[in-house]
Specification:
With 269 residues, this protein is of the alpha/beta class. It has 10 helices and 6 strands, in the order H-E-H-E-H-E-H-E-H-H-H-E-H-H-E-H. The strands form 2 sheets. Strands 2-1-3-4 form a 4-stranded parallel sheet, sandwiched between helices. Strands 5-6 form a two-stranded antiparallel sheet. Helix 4 (124-138) links the parallel strand 3 and strand 4. The structure holds zinc ion.
Length: 269
């Protein structure tokens, strides 16, 4: 069933026909290949981005919004995970060029409404630069949907910090069918700012170390995570639950269908 929604699972003649019939948008999942604690595989962000995109495309199909899902871009901005075995990365400047080439490829075929479905927080700064640079140089507007942002109200109900391989992400991975070993789940660097300070690294009380940080702040870069979180978890993975992840999915999916409907000129819900 999902083959019909996945660009790389279609023949070129099927894609040609789909384009002739009209495609409202193409979703491009961006993940990562990086450590996700001792309890989840390296492909967790990629799986989350792809599975969310497929659910969005399937929901859209039921509602008359036609979407295709492009191949998942797996190796991305993960330099700060390289101290853990197996993590892979593109340098940030390579990543920006990859984003550019992927977008250009889709535009070549007339797929002009493009929404990036991003599963990896470390991609956010570069993706933000990439889509602004794309508008600057081509006049085309691309949108990025980060699950942490589009489901921010549900994520905000979780009272442990939302950073990496922790309660929210592990819950979402459970809901989307990832292999999760909850017995191996850990709690680590629960307060990232405190962990940075304890590691003797430059620290400021105004640093925004958590996505949910409110109030006066300065932006700080990532940390080489193993310096502050030996297990690779930043937050508390031990409290993960499938039901929590299902609430995130149920918030994200209809909202992204709505985003596409609005971008293509349909009525706002
Ligand atoms: Zn992740």
């Amino acid at each position: 069933m999902t083959d019909a929604l996945q660009l790389e699972r279609m023949t070129w003649t099927e894609v040609d026909r789909a384009l002739a019939d009209g495609v409202d948008a193409v979703l491009v999942p961006f993940g990562s290949v990086e450590q996700h604690g001792p309890h989840m595989p390296l492909d967790t962000d990629s799986l989350i981005a792809r599975e969310l995109a497929l659910r969005v495309a399937a929901r859209g199909a039921q509602e008359g919004v036609r979407m295709l899902v492009a191949p998942t871009i797996g190796v991305t901005v993960s330099w700060y995970h390289m101290q853990y075995a197996g993590s892979m990365r593109l340098t940030t400047d390579t990543f920006l060029r990859v984003v550019r080439d992927v977008l250009d490829s889709l535009v070549t075929h007339g797929l002009e409404t493009i929404v990036i479905v991003n599963g990896h927080g470390g991609n956010v700064p570069a993706l933000t630069v990439a889509i602004n640079h794309y508008l600057e140089t081509t006049g085309r507007r691309i949108v990025v949907a980060n699950w942490l942002d589009l489901a921010s109200d549900v994520v905000g109900e979780i009272d442990t910090p939302g950073l990496h391989a922790e309660e929210a992400e592990t819950s979402l991975a459970l809901a989307l069918g990832q292999r999760v070993d909850l017995e191996a789940a850990t709690r680590d660097a629960f307060d990232r700012g405190a962990a940075v300070r304890a590691a003797g690294l430059p620290w400021t009380s105004f640093g925004r170390y958590d996505a949910s940080h409110r109030g006066p702040s300065v932006t700080v870069p990532m940390d080489m995570l193993r310096d502050i979180a030996p297990s690779g978890v930043v937050g508390d993975a031990t409290r993960a639950a499938r039901a929590t992840g299902e609430r995130i999915v149920e918030a994200f999916v209809p909202r992204l269908v709505q985003v596409v409907r609005e971008l293509t000129g349909g009525a706002a819900a």
